[in-house]
Write a structure and sequence with these properties.
Layout: H1 3-9, H2 35-47, H3 54-67, E1 71-75, H4 78-88, E2 96-100, H5 110-113, E3 117-121, E4 143-149, H6 158-168, E5 171-175, E6 183-184, E7 187-188, E8 195-199, E9 212-216, H7 219-229, H8 259-290, E10 296-298, E11 316-319, H9 329-338, E12 344-345, H10 388-392, E13 397-399, H11 408-423, H12 426-429
Parallel strand pairs: 2-3, 2-4, 4-5, 5-8
Antiparallel strand pairs: 1-9, 6-7, 8-9, 10-11, 11-13, 12-13
Helix pairs in contact: 2-8, 3-8, 4-7, 8-11, 9-11
Bound molecules: pyridoxal-5'-phosphate (PLP).
The site of pyridoxal-5'-phosphate has 14 residues, from helix 4.
């Protein structure tokens, strides 16, 4: 081996040449802001329409049409859209909702605003989505809904979940904040639930700034959500039981979307399908290059299943330490990052063990907020779950580069970074503590994003 070859083969962590050498161009730039976006936003600014809702309504209508749902209602963020959806579905004090522990906190916390008790279920280790096998035994007479998250773009097992919901006559809310445009067996996510909510903030795959949106086919859900947080649109309320309450926001919330976001979003709806197709092509190419590698496994739908990951937000692979003689995930990812590729260990931290869900009394009820809406005999201990997959998954998954462009040569370099580390894993064992540092976080967007160039 010449010295040059040696340098190339040696891990960058130990002074070798980095596998990722090229200029990354616009591989990771997101969202893509075009002149059309700029013009659309300027138009609103110049017309003095920032706080109106005419453009927002246009955005809602167009998005609902594209998705094939009856009603769309826009919000200033996804968290509020989830709150509005829960209220819209009639969920309130003393009710329980079943939610995955492995998700961004906003899937769950809005339940607190309504006096509702979240009940956590475990996730499936292969999809990181709520495990249908862990739902049914958690259903009580108080259970009103299952909140499904299509985590990291991977559609949840909707057939099984719908079966459970129908059997027990409970509702489904889809949190689609990771999965804009993803298909489950050929049908778009966000069309399965009684309601669905999407975050549209800058980090998400359909990004419009700060924003969120709720979809439903149920007029009552839509009107209740308007009553709750869109007081300026109370003239849309037609249902007799709601009309007397119009005029003031029933929950005291103001949920209107900023029209600069709606204007940006109208352009985005046109451009997204093409962007999504390119991302899907790029990410599948990256996964194909690494599919046969030892110790790592892409998390993606089976080929030919007509299930897709949409814009592939926050893509992850599984890590099998046993295939690397127990090499810690932290050490493995450190070596991949040294090669210039993106590799962040873990995903979201499990929510069910955080004190917010075990002890904290947020509003002064004199007992944990988690059970504050239940009758006096409720015992928090009964609600503190053991969820083995959620509690350990951070050691078994890692975040891979989220390519926005199909530029094969750059994608190959990133795949080669992984291959090189896999080939040389033995060299990493010597200094490995065998333990993983604290991994995973509560916010993927701000805390765990490293080395995104
Ligand atoms: C981002 C996100 C939300 C909240 O959306 P915001 O627009 O940030 O308020 C909700 N659920 C999930 C799964 C998310 O990733």
């Amino acid at each position: 081996m010449t010295q040059e070859e040696q340098k190339k083969n040696e891990l960058a962590l130990f002074g070798g040449e980095r596998a990722v050498k090229s200029e990354q161009q616009d591989m990771f730039k997101w969202p893509v802001v075009t002149e059309r976006h700029e013009q659309a936003v300027l138009k609103v600014l110049r017309a003095g329409g920032m706080s109106g809702f005419d453009i927002t309504k246009e955005f809602e209508k167009k998005y609902a049409q594209l998705l094939g749902r009856e009603y769309g209602l826009a919000y200033h963020n996804g968290t509020a859209a989830i709150l509005g959806a829960l209220y819209g579905m009639g969920i309130g004090v003393g009710d329980e909702v079943i939610v995955p522990s492995l998700t961004y906190w906003a899937t769950v916390t809005p339940a607190y605003n309504l006096g509702t008790t979240p009940v956590f279920a475990d996730v499936d280790p292969d999809t990181i989505c709520i495990d249908p096998k862990d739902i049914e035994h958690r259903i009580t007479p108080r259970t009103r809904a299952i909140i499904v998250v299509h985590y990291a773009g991977m559609p949840a097992d909707m057939d099984a979940i719908i079966k459970i919901a129908e059997k027990h006559d409970i509702k489904i809310l889809e949190d689609c904040s990771h999965a804009h445009g993803a298909l489950y067996k050929g049908k778009e996510v966000g069309t399965f639930g009684d309601a669905s909510a999407f975050s549209l903030m800058t980090g998400k795959s359909l990004a419009i700034g700060e924003g969120g949106i709720l979809f439903t086919d149920d007029r009552k859900v839509y009107e209740r959500a308007i009553l709750f947080g869109h007081y300026i649109r109370h003239n849309e309320i037609t249902l007799k039981e709601l009309k007397p309450f119009a005029g003031l926001p029933s929950g005291g919330y103001k949920h209107r979307m900023h029209q600069l976001s709606s204007a940006f979003g109208l352009v985005q709806l046109e451009l997204y399908p093409k962007q999504m197709a390119e991302i899907d092509r790029a990410m599948n190419y990256f996964c194909d290059l690494l599919d046969d590698s030892d110790g790592i496994k892409p998390i993606r739908p089976e080929k030919g299943s007509n299930t897709t990951k949409g814009g592939w937000y926050y893509p992850h692979f599984r890590y099998v330490a046993e295939e690397f003689e127990g090499l810690s995930l932290s050490r493995f990812s450190e070596a991949v990052r040294a090669e210039g590729a993106i590799c962040n260990p873990g995903c979201n931290k499990p929510l069910h063990i955080h004190p917010l869900f075990t002890t904290m009394d947020v509003y002064g009820h004199g007992r944990p907020t988690r059970i504050a809406g239940l009758d006096e005999s409720a015992n928090i201990d009964k609600y503190i779950e053991k969820l083995p997959v959620s509690e350990s998954i951070n050691l078994h998954v890692f975040e891979v580069p989220w390519f926005k462009r199909y530029l094969p040569e750059i994608i190959e370099e990133h795949a080669n970074a992984y291959k090189k580390v896999i080939k040389n894993y033995k060299a990493l064992l010597a200094d490995d503590t065998g333990k993983d540092a604290e991994i995973g976080g509560y916010s993927s967007f701000f805390s765990s994003r490293k080395n995104t160039q």
